[in-house]
Amino acid sequence: MGLILTLDAGNTSIKMGYYNDQGHLIQYARVATDENKTSDEYGLFTMSVLQYAGLSRDDVVGVIISSVVPSLNSTLENMCHTFYHLDPLFVGPGVKTGMDIKYDNPKEVGSDRIATAVGAFTKYGGPCIVIDFGTATTLAAITEKGEFLGGAILPGVRTSLSSLVHQTAKLPTIELRKPPRAIGKNTVENMQSGLIHGYIGSITRLVSKIREEMNEPEARVIATGGLSRVLDTPVLQIIDSYLTLDGLYAIYQRNQEGK
Q: Is 212 contained in some domain?
């Protein structure tokens, strides 16, 4: 069995998945992003995930990484060398993604956004709007031909909550869940209403404007990220938790063609 390890290093967590020869995700895990952790600590974590699945590191034949935390890149690279004896493929300039980036400066697009867009287009086709609910929430407009047109970035729901709590004297930390009504009857419900219903309103408006500018009123909306299921709204037509890792696997395969 030849396994491919995919790693998506985000600001809050590192998501990882092992894919088999058929391109199926057979094991998934996540760990908090910590720039103080050593390559050994991250390596031992990946080893424990392998052992839990009854697999061996000798089964791993390739590694691909998307990272928005540059200070972690050398740590993850060292981990791959030490534990897998492999050179990881980092998504970035020069890597074949199969997607035409129509940004003013394509190098500005985060590797995680590219991987997520590739995953969405590979699995569901276009035109589509891909929304990733993370530390920041990103929206990407993808054409029928698989072109990355651009999109929007706004603070994530948890980021907004953190700002609200830390910038005010009396507002408490709350559970992020949809309140029973929009008119809150206490402080917690007031905050939940503003954060959840307000955020749904922002996403709904952005999707409408992006569809209008794409001239694609039926562009499919595909969501991923931890809070995609909390923000329960009909505008989110597909929720796929593993979109970024699926995209990383697809990019890895494209870069093996002809080798």
A: yes
Please state the pTM of the whole predicted model: 0.92
Tell me which of 112, 132, 240, 246 is the catalytic residue. Answer: 112
CB 5 within 8 A of CB 62: yes
Total structural domains within the chain? 2
pLDDT tens for the chain, residues 1 to 259: 689 999 999 988 999 999 998 999 999 999 999 999 999 999 999 999 988 888 888 899 999 999 999 999 999 999 999 999 999 999 988 899 999 999 989 889 989 999 999 999 999 998 999 999 988 999 999 999 999 999 999 998 888 888 888 888 888 888 888 888 899 899 899 989 988 899 999 999 999 999 999 999 999 999 998 778 777 788 999 999 999 999 999 999 999 876 6
Distance CA 178, CA 119 (A): 28
Q: Is 112 annotated as catalytic?
A: yes
CA–CA separation, 179 and 186 (whole Å): 11
